[in-house]
From TrEMBL:
Gene3D superfamilies: YVTN repeat-like/Quinoprotein amine dehydrogenase, Zinc/RING finger domain, C3HC4 (zinc finger). It comes from the Eukaryota. This is E3 ubiquitin-protein ligase PEP5. SUPFAM superfamilies: RING/U-box, WD40 repeat-like. CHCR repeats lie at residues 405-585.
Length: 1021
């Protein structure tokens, strides 16, 4: 992998921290004698100044915390490192003397060079070669030192507890090349070492005879300060001329190409970032500068190893003495100590600022990588993707843009994206496909609604993407969710109550269905409507009209529940009867006779070869012939016991009567089947009457058109009419149950008979009464009315005399008919016959009021003056007789009333003593001779006191109050009659309430008259 120079950002910021004592006699870290630096944590550092002094400084203040002399004056401190528990390690060197390693306990604030925790001296021959590299363990049990003469000395012991140490030479370079790097691994078992020509690995345990355990690179070495160690990954980083190489103790290696000339130093910031320090030569910018070599400037580069970019590029004019890292108040930073008395703090910018810098240059993939690595909120990542998608769309990279839009649906205005790729704005198929992809993603993430689903299907239809439509149908569930594994057609059950009773609108099914039909995608139209339509009518419409497959339509209809089957048959039975008359009629018969049983499976397979539709279907003249044929085709034998009882209440057959227009023979079969079912299993009589009436009409129509079977049809019509007459008579009879006592007649049959020129009287029987039909009164009146239309007066008179006693209403009808014309009047014999057979019967039976009779007689000029005069004279005489009789009754009632009043007055009189006969009298209760004490009532009844009930009513004085047992019922009835009068007399509000009620609003006079009649206007006494 390599870095692209174009991918450079300033993702880190550098802040100079200047020494406040710069230029004074007591500088802090700007002391020019500064030779070593190490962080102590949280903004505190330890520095070596003036050769042998160690000083601790707080950079946050900044101020010096402590200072002490660590070595004698002839030494030079060249290395400082802080280990655990406040221990500071210092390395002092002096030519001709052993290298001195001292451990200081900063917690005890050392005072002088002898106030150390422990010490160790390392001897390297005559000690004339300085230390070039050093590495030590945190527990101070292992220290390795490298010298410029190529020697590596290992020191092992327990310096942390001051228990001494041992040292030995583990390597000595034959060419005396200086040791440029030393790094112990995490468990201190090996150390990485390098010279200017080789990179090696040594074990710190056991003996190695001065040879490396492994040579990691035998061709190239490392310059001083051009390597570092990553403790988290346990690997060595080496900065070479054209690359940065990574070595593990196992010998594994990988490289990173970095084209950075004049690399001087490398520093590990974290696992993903390294800092490179290089020198840059800049030419003289003015002619006044005498030197021609130019200026050497330090370039600070921070490489992002994970994202392959330069995270910072900064130039420094001063030399860098030391680089270290520290965490101050929770913020991790890298510090560059320069020779001009400034510590440059390098801190990573907040991730939001980094992303903003990257997106400003439209390098959105890098921004997304960074956001995902730094665990940025999902919404922020989606915002970056939205910006990325916008940028791609502007570059006309629409497919790539859609991929980004799909991943930021939560924050994207979907309508805006849809409008960009809308099928109305472009004719490019690619844009439609991109929009379909976007809509699919919305469906999969449950962010779509019905309009989105409708648009997706419209696009797929426009693209003629049959596979896409099939995929949608199988993977889009009835609850509006995407199903990854898909759904089989067998799961699209009509018993799915969760779907059929839900109010979820999945799509504009009507629109999509029409688009599929227009595009001739018939199979897809059926699959879509079969799965997603809640209306079986819609499904059958596709099968029957779009696919033109009536056999499959019948199969589907038979799989429905009876309610849905009925709805479908009402809608499509006419079409089905045209294509499959007998099969459809059989289904209609099953449904309308209550024997329909749905099939458990819908075996509709539109991909199978369609069955041929026969045009030569047999025609049947009766239901029995139809049943015989249907059983023979099914391989069975008809049996009356095979007819099952209805499992539900059959619907009204009249619902599908219109479907049989121009199909009389199928209609006859259907009606006969319904009639047979009604006769066997009972049903609503009104429905049966409708069947009889319709069947009667069909029979007569066929009798007129089918000359070959004319007599058969008329015979059937006669039988139907007689059955209708019998049914009407049953409904009128007093023995009929209340549920069946429905007020209806068969008057429509009269009209049908008249239209077809059928003589109903001949159907009923001749005038001699040789055939007595059990008919009802309504049918008699209807028959007579129909006969009147024929103007055959003699037949009407015979019918009247025969059935007049059964239905007196016939005389009232005959009164007007025989007076309708002079011809009719004379044909029956004129006034004598009319008066004797008709008028006298009407008067005798009191069928009309005299005024009504007079109105009928005078309505035409047929009745003679003598007939009217005789009627009036007879009526007046009858009224006089009635008046005379009434006067006699009044006199009789008055005498009886006076007698009763006298008796009542005598009983109520208290002044006259009442004589009671006790001797030889009997008790009305026990019927034995009376003996005292007795109780006598003014009504004349007398009882033993012991015979009266003990729970008699007591009056206010405490004495018992008795009532006559024989008259108690009459007294109670009288009191009940008086009570309403008292209520009306005392509660006038009852009248107002009665008048304001809705029930009495139509007859207010009746309410007032009833109130007055009950004594409402009388005053109480």
């Amino acid at each position: 992998m390599s870095f692209n120079s174009q991918r450079q950002f300033q993702l880190f910021e550098i802040t100079p921290i200047r020494d406040p004592n710069f230029g004074t006699d007591t500088p802090l870290y700007s002391d020019p004698t500064l030779s070593a630096v190490t962080p102590l944590g949280n903004g505190t550092i330890a520095i070596a100044v003036r050769s042998v002094y160690i000083q601790t400084i707080d950079l946050k203040t900044p101020a010096s915390l402590a200072e002490f002399k660590a070595y004698g004056d002839d030494y030079q401190i060249t290395y400082l490192e802080y280990v655990k528990d406040g221990m500071l390690v210092s390395v002092g060197e002096c030519v001709g003397k052993p290298t001195s390693i001292k451990i200081w306990n900063l917690g005890k604030t050392p005072k002088d060079a002898f106030d150390f925790h422990s010490t160790c001296e390392v001897r390297n021959g005559n000690n004339t070669f300085p230390v070039s590299a050093i590495s030590l363990s945190q527990d101070l049990s292992c220290i390795v030192l490298g010298f410029v003469n190529g020697r590596i000395i290992l020191v092992r012991g327990d310096l942390y507890r001051d228990r001494g140490s041992r040292q030995r030479i583990i390597y000595e370079d034959l060419n005396n090349e200086p040791i440029t790097a030393l790094f112990l691994n995490n468990d201190y078992s090996v150390t990485f070492a390098s010279t200017t020509s080789r990179i090696m690995l040594f074990r710190t345990t056991g003996r190695n005879n001065g040879e490396p355990e492994r040579v990691l690179n035998a061709n190239t070495g490392i310059d001083l300060n051009c390597s570092c160690f990553n403790p988290e990954r346990d690997e060595l980083l080496c900065c070479l001329d054209k690359s940065v190489e990574f070595y593990k103790a196992t010998g594994e290696k990988h490289s990173l190409l970095v084209e950075v000339p004049m690399k001087k130093r490398i520093f590990l910031i974290d696992n993903d970032h390294i800092l490179l320090l290089s020198s840059v030569s800049t030419p003289n910018s003015t002619a006044l500068q005498l030197s021609s070599t130019g200026t050497i400037t330090k370039k600070v580069l921070i490489l992002d190893l994970k994202n392959q970019l330069i995270a910072m590029n900064h130039l420094l004019a001063s030399n860098i003495v030391h680089i270290y890292s520290d965490t101050v108040d929770g913020v991790y930073s890298v510090y560059l100590v320069t020779t001009d008395g400034v510590i440059n703090r390098i801190t990573e910018k907040p991730v939001d600022k980094q992303i903003k810098l990257i997106t400003q240059r439209e390098l959105y993939p890098i921004a997304l990588q960074l956001a995902e690595q730094r665990s940025v909120s999902p919404l922020r990542i989606q915002e970056i993707r939205r910006q990325y998608g916008d940028a791609l769309y502007k570059k006309n990279m629409k497919e790539e843009a859609v991929e980004q839009y799909i991943q930021c649906l939560d924050i994207t205005e979907t309508s805006e994206i849809i409008s960009r790729f809308g099928i109305q704005k472009t004719s490019r198929p690619d844009d439609s496909r991109n929009l379909a992809t976007y809509l699919w993603s919305m469906i999969k993430q449950k962010l779509s609604h019905s309009d989105h689903v409708t648009l997706l299907l419209a696009i797929l239809i426009k693209l003629k993407d049959v596979d896409g439509i099939d995929y949608f149908i199988s993977h889009f569930s009835r609850n509006g969710e995407f199903v990854e594994e898909g759904e089989d057609e067998s799961s699209w059950s009509v018993d799915d109550e969760t779907f059929f009773y839900s109010d979820i609108v999945l799509m504009d099914l009507d629109t999509i269905l029409q688009l599929l039909k227009d595009s001739e995608l018939d199979a897809q139209a059926f699959s879509l409507v079969h799965k997603f339509s809640k209306d079986p009518i819609q499904v059958v419409d596709v099968i029957l009209n779009t696919l033109d497959d009536p056999h499959s339509a019948l199969k589907y209809i038979k799989s429905l529940h009876v309610d849905d089957t009925l709805r479908v048959l009402i809608e499509f039975s006419k079409v089905l009867l045209e294509k499959l008359p007998n099969d459809t009629n059989a289904l209609l018969i099953d449904v309308f006779t209550g024997r329909y049983q749905r099939s458990t499976k819908c075996e509709v397979n539109i991909r199978e070869k369609k069955q041929t539709i026969s045009r030569n279907n047999p025609v049947f003249h009766s239901y029995k012939a139809f049943v015989t044929y249907m059983y023979s085709t099914a391989g069975g034998v008809p049996n009356s016991e095979d007819i099952q009882e209805p499992t539900y209440h059959p619907p009204k057959p009249s619902l599908v009567f219109t479907s049989f227009i121009d199909r009389p023979f199928q209609f006859v079969v259907f009606l006969e089947a319904c009639l047979e079912s009604y006769n066997k299993f009972q049903g609503f009589l009104r429905d049966k009457q409708e069947i009889l009436t319709t069947l009667y009409d069909i029979y007569l129509s066929l009798a007129a058109t089918d000359e070959a079977h004319n007599e058969d049809w008329r015979t059937k019509a006669t039988a139907v009419y007689k059955e209708s007459e019998k049914l009407a008579g049953t409904c009128r009879s007093p023995q009929a149950p209340k549920a069946s006592n429905t007020q209806f007649d068969n008057s429509l049959m009269m009209l049908i008979s008249h239209i077809n020129n059928v003589d109903l009287y001949s159907v009923e029987g001749d005038a001699s009464g040789t055939e007595d039909l059990s008919v009802n009164k309504a049918n008699l009146t209807n028959t007579f009315r129909s006969m009147c239309l024929t103007k055959e007066a003699k037949k009407c008179m015979n019918f009247l005399e025969k059935y007049g006693s059964v239905e007196p209403e016939l005389y009232r009808m005959a009164l007007g008919f025989f007076l309708s014309s002079k011809q009719v009047y004379d044909s029956i014999g004129g006034a004598p016959v009319f008066k004797a057979r008709v008028l006298d019967k009407v008067i005798e039976m009191d069928l009309l009021q005299p005024l009504d009779i007079l109105f009928v007689l005078s309505s035409t000029s047929v009745a003679t003056f003598g007939l009217v005069r005789d009627f009036l004279i007879n009526h007046i005489k009858a009224q006089q007789r009635e008046t005379h009789n009434n006067e006699k009754l009044i006199q009789s009632y008055q005498g009886e009333l006076q007698e009763k009043e006298m008796q009542l007055k005598t009983l109520l009189s208290e002044s006259e003593p009442l004589q009671v006969k006790v001797k030889n009298n009997f008790c009305k209760m026990c019927h034995t001779l009376l003996d005292l004490p007795v109780i006598f009532f003014k009504c004349g009844h007398i009882y033993h006191q012991r015979c009266l009930p003990e729970d008699s009513i007591s009056d206010g004085n405490g004495s018992p109050h008795y009532r006559c047992p024989n008259c108690a019922v009459d007294i109670e009835a009288s009191e009940n009659l008086i009570k309403p009068k008292k209520d009306n007399d005392t509660k006038a509000s009852l009248l107002q309430a009665a008048l304001s009620s809705e029930d009495s609003s139509g007859d207010r006079f009746k309410v007032v008259s009833e109130f007055i009649g009950k004594g409402g206007l009388e005053f109480g006494t």
